[in-house]
Amino acid sequence: MMYQKCIVCGEKFGADEIIYLCRRCGGLLEVDYDYDLLEAKIKKSDWQSLPLSVWRYKDFMPIRGSSKIVSLTEGGTGLHSCQRLARILGIKHLYVKNEGENPTGSFKDRGMTVGITKALELNVETVICASTGNTSASLAAYAAKAGLQCIVLIPSGKIAYGKLAQAMVYGAKVVQIRGNFDRALKIVLELSEKHREVYLLNSINPYRLEGQKSLAYEICDQLNRQPPDRVVLPVGNAGNISAIWKGFTEFRKLGLVDRIPRMTGIQAEGAAPIAQAIKNGRAEIVPIDKPETVATAIRIGAPISWKKAIRAIRESGGTAETVSDEEILEAQKMLARHEGLFVEPASASSIAGLKKLFEAGKTDEDEVVVCVTTGHGLKDPDIAIKISEKPSEVDAEIESIERLLGLSRYMPATVISR
Ligand SMILES: Cc1ncc(COP(=O)(O)O)c(C=O)c1O
Ligand SMILES: [Zn+2]
Fold first, then answer.
1. Ligand 2 is an ion; residues with CB less than 5 A from it
2. Residue 94: exposure state from Cβ atoms within 10 A (0-12, 13-18, ≥19)
3. Which DSSP category does 343 fall into?
4. Helices (H), 122-238
5. What is residue 363's DSSP assignment?
6. Which of 122, 133, 368, 108 minimizes the C-alpha distance to 230?
7. How far apart are CA 61 and CA 116, in angstroms?
8. How far is CA 362 from the centre of its chain?
9. Is 390 exposed, middle or buried (0-12, 13-18, 19+ CB in 10 A)?
10. Which of 108, 285, 298, 310 to mutate to test the pocket of ligand 1 (most atoms within 8 A of CB)?
11. Rounded Cα distance, 20 and 4, in Å
12. Which residues, 6 or more positions from 315, have their beta carbon under 8 angstroms from its beta carbon?
């Protein structure tokens, strides 16, 4: 009923084969299903009565049964109607799908709950990933829950402190490399090809992306099966945009929705190979040697899933845009101050990108837009403190505080007696 299929040459591989790239052409793999069988299965299932979460969609997931599921209660994140921010931007309908509400604070948990469950089905004992931070935090947590060994490779000094703290406290073997994320990913891919007992859970792993597609299902269900016109999200290694697009296409194939939103990918100016290819109408990306941005989560120069992402953007009629670090940080502040949503810089790039596209006349004020904020603001407290006003310090006396706040010294008796 399911198998792994090369997105380039169409070659098929067994669902339980541990394989990361097509053996025939080196292309990326995706999980494919017999959708007629799947449609029949979901018609008989009570999935629509389950609470919103990744596992509400168990029938759509590539796992064999429920006995091995490793869950920390992922998904079911808020789809926040952001009217104050929408008004400021000049648009009518803005929602934020806030993935910081996941157990380790990012969308990666959707992928890891499925990826680690698959790892147990495949009887592996050690899992590995390269990471700009969130993947390592998430993998470390799910490996701990499953009792698996976990190794993470991260670029030395280039990941946010909160994420490093998570990977360490969950007990992963943390290896900092003197090199960037792209280098780390090359190494873990080579390592896991060479040492078959080490299972790779970067987004090149199609099973992980199956978990991440649940984000699209949830958006459809939260909007009563009226998909938004556009979904805007940050793009780094490009797994997430591909997974979410696959989710929407599946809901359409299964007759659950009748259209697909325009997938709109946002990259930081200093790390934007996919946005550049889309803007220049090129078929292929030109990797960037030394990617740079304050949004360390998307500081990636050679995104491994670029082909899937370009397919998602082009086939959905979407687009891509770049944003500067300044625009990202401004958007981070706006979202916090006007909507009470504290997200990390990479996540805020979705808001910054929407603002830029709208101002350039590339999106319409009437569109229903969902911006995905991918990770929690507390992941990177240093940045939050840097962009905010410093707290005032005064003597611990009521008079000093009244003076500072400009409050009059005598309160009316009525207020006091209440
Ligand atoms: C917070 C955050 N946003 C966006 C991304 C980019 O996701 P992808 O690599 O799937 O494009 C990442 C990846 O690490 C991330 O941690
Ligand atoms: Zn192939």
1. 6, 8-9, 11, 22, 24-25, 27
2. buried
3. B
4. 134-146, 161-169, 181-194, 206-212, 214-222
5. S
6. 368
7. 13
8. 24
9. exposed
10. 298
11. 10
12. 245
377 lines ligand 1 (CB under 6 A): no
162 touches ligand 1 (CB under 6 Å): no
Q: How far is the CA of 190 from the centre of ligand 2 (A)?
A: 18
Residue 93: closest CA among 364, 372, 322? 364
What is the distance in A from the centroid of ligand 1 to the CA of 159?
12
Do the strands 2-6 and 12-14 form a parallel or antiparallel pair, or are they unpaired? antiparallel
pTM passes above 0.90: yes
User: Ligand 1 atom closest to Cα of 242?
Assistant: 10
Instruction: Report the Cα–Cα distance between both ends of the chain, in Å, rounded.
Output: 69
Residues 28-72 pLDDT 10s: 999 999 999 999 999 999 999 999 999 999 999 999 999 999 999
The first and second tokens of residue 376, run together, are: 């929690």
Extract the tokens encoding 405. Answer: 């706040």
Q: Residue 6 Cα, ligand 2 centroid: separation in angstroms?
A: 5
d(CA 175, CA 188): 11
Q: Are strands 262-268 and 319-323 parallel, antiparallel or unpaired?
A: parallel
Own/partner contacts of 153-159, CB < 8 Å, gap of 24 or more, are: 153/128, 153/129, 153/177, 153/184, 153/187, 153/188, 154/130, 154/181, 154/184, 155/179, 155/180, 155/181, 155/183, 155/184, 158/132, 158/296, 158/299, 159/131, 159/132, 159/133, 159/296
Atom of ligand 1 nearest to the CA of 375: 1
Sequence-distant (≥ 6) Cβ neighbours of residue 198 within 8 angstroms: 124, 126, 127, 128, 151, 191, 192
Interval 176-210: pLDDT, tens = 999 999 999 999 999 999 999 999 999 999 999 99
pLDDT by residue (tens digit) across 362-387?
Answer: 999 999 999 999 999 999 999 999 99
Q: Is 112 exposed, middle or buried (0-12, 13-18, 19+ CB in 10 A)?
A: buried
Q: How far is the CA of 195 from the centre of ligand 1 (A)?
A: 27
- Residue 265 host element (H or E): strand 262-268
Check if 373 has its Cβ closer than 6 Å to any atom of ligand 1: no
Tokens encoding 9 = 């040459």
Atom of ligand 1 nearest to the CA of 203: 10
Q: Could you give the angle at which helices 239-253 and 214-222 cross, rounded to 10 degrees? A: 60
